[in-house]
Amino acid sequence: MNPDEYESLPTTSVATNMTAGAIAGVMEHCVMYPLDSVKTRMQSLTHMHAQNTIVSTMRDMVRTEGLMRPFRGVMAVVAGAGPAHALYFGAYEYSKETISRFSDRDQINYMVSAALATLVHDAISNPADVVKQRLQMYNSPYRSIMHCASKVYRTEGLRAFYRSYSTQLVMNIPYSAIQFPTYEFFQKLLNKDNKYNPPVHMVAGGAAGAAASALTTPLDVCKTLLNTQEDGAGKTRGLIEAAKKIYRTAGPLGFFRGLQARVLYQMPATAICWSTYEFFKYILTQGARPLAWGINSSSSSSSGSSSSSSSETVVVSSADKIQKDDKKLPDLRYVLPVSAAAAAEASSLIVRSGTSSSGGGERETGRRELPAMSGAGIYGAMSYNTMHSNDANHITDHHLRRSN
Asked: What single-letter DSSP state applies at residue 371?
């Protein structure tokens, strides 16, 4: 498949979008998780007055708590990010496709689709964020993910896992409403041919993540307080109360604590997320295209120097439906599609069966064999086999040939 065929593929498959989204979400959070731990520490009430930087916070974490401390709680993200991002991208692509049938205003379409996707995503990710951020805090009393989840449930109830849900929606809906249109804007600006272009996906994703994270940092600081409950379990019950406590503790600048860490986390994380998502969407969509398999049956007989042969070629779709002539195929063998020149060369190496003679005759040895191919030849053959279309409008004599 050529890159310029990327946008013509059936990319609206919900399963494809969800699978690609799940992989992208896990990759995004795992790779950049240490910076997320630093951001949470810097947004903590106990660090509001400290003049900590990203480097100093990371250094202190490693020096006092161990080398792996910045990764503590990462498995909570793995458990939550997979299904959350699967629904996130699946809902976004489905909504975008559906809304486009009724409206041609792209930017409004992207914003509405992003908001709908966020509603679903946060319902799954919020409990995982509560566990993750409590494990990230300094002197966290929790030994593991299960210990944290069970203790929070026993002492604070199920409500504790969704205490910041409304705040997270208030933050993530504008975050997504900024991120997705920004990504689509840079896609159209830098990728005018709508080709699969990894560098463009990475640049567009990074720019979208940086813009969205910077503008929503104050809400993220409030969310951190609601999730961690530093001032006592259940004492901070909503966005307004969290905002008041942050203002009393550190003033207006308190709402921007961890801004640099958040941007440095979200920019590469979003670039990784979008690049991974587009890559796996491309790969999975390519794999869903019908494949053409050449299946030859041959029988030959000769008398003296003359011989006759018949061959049939059929096409097998991805649903394994075989269309063939009435003649029975006695010997079905997989044949790599090769160029016309290679096919001509291969025909000279075919060992025919059924006759044996001396001089110009042919000798009986059994069955058809394939010629040896170099690495480049095999790559070209396999690439051609997995990438050409099975559409009848595109089938030519080069693909299907019948010789009598």
From this structure: P
- Cα gap 112→98, rounded to integer Å: 11
Q: What local confidence, expressed as pLDDT, does residue 127 receive?
A: 93
C-alpha to C-alpha distance for 40 and 385, rounded to whole angstroms: 50
Which residues face 322 on adjacent strands? 316
Whole-Å CA distances, 357 to 298, 301, 309, 362, 366: 19, 11, 17, 6, 15
**13: which 2 tokens?**
């498959």
How much is the pTM? 0.60
Return d(Cα 124, Cα 134) in angstroms, integer. 17
Q: Which residue has the tokens 């890159």?
A: 3
pLDDT for 216 equals: 93
Cα–Cα nearest to 38, from 67, 58, 56: 58
Q: Which of 173, 29, 18 is nearest to 87 (CA)?
A: 18
d(CA 224, CA 243): 11
DSSP β-bridge partners for residue 306 = 303
CA distance 342 to 346: 6
d(CA 288, CA 11): 10
Cα–Cα distance between 94 and 100 in angstroms, integer? 10
Q: Which two tokens stand for residue 82?
A: 């997979």
* Start-to-end Cα distance in the chain: 32
CA dist 83 and 106 (Å) reads 27
Integer Cα distance of 105 and 156 in angstroms: 45
Tell me which residues of the chain have a pLDDT lower than 70: 1-12, 49-50, 234, 287-404
Structure tokens at 338: 């090769």
DSSP, collapsed to helix, strand or coil, labels residue 208 as: helix
Are 324 and 312 in contact by the 8 Å Cβ rule? The answer is: yes
| All structural domains of the chain | 10-287 (1.50.40.10)
Neighbouring C-beta atoms of residue 3, cutoff 10 Å: 13
CB-based contacts of 114, cutoff 8 Å, min separation 6: 92, 173, 176, 177, 179, 180, 181
Q: Are 212 and 111 in contact (CB under 8 A)?
A: no
